[in-house]
Design goal:
- By secondary structure, the chain is an all-alpha fold.
- The protein is built from two helices and no strands.
- The longest helix has 31 residues.
- Keywords: Membrane, Transmembrane, Transmembrane helix.
Length: 56
């Protein structure tokens, strides 16, 4: 006699996947934020050096 096979779960539907477009959007936002913070840091360093608050 053959027993019933246990039901198999579809792991694709149980895990949450983000679409490629969503991942690209997040990457673009992180890249833009990183560039903006880098530019602001450089401007602040240049301004403080110009006014003599720090020396390089």
């Amino acid at each position: 006699m053959k027993t019933e096979n246990p039901p198999t779960q579809n792991t694709e539907s149980t895990t949450q996947h983000k679409s490629k477009d969503e991942l690209n959007q997040e990457t673009a936002v992180e890249f833009s934020l990183g560039i903006a913070l880098g530019v602001i840091t450089i401007i602040l360093a240049a301004a403080t050096a110009y006014f003599g608050l720090i020396r390089f």
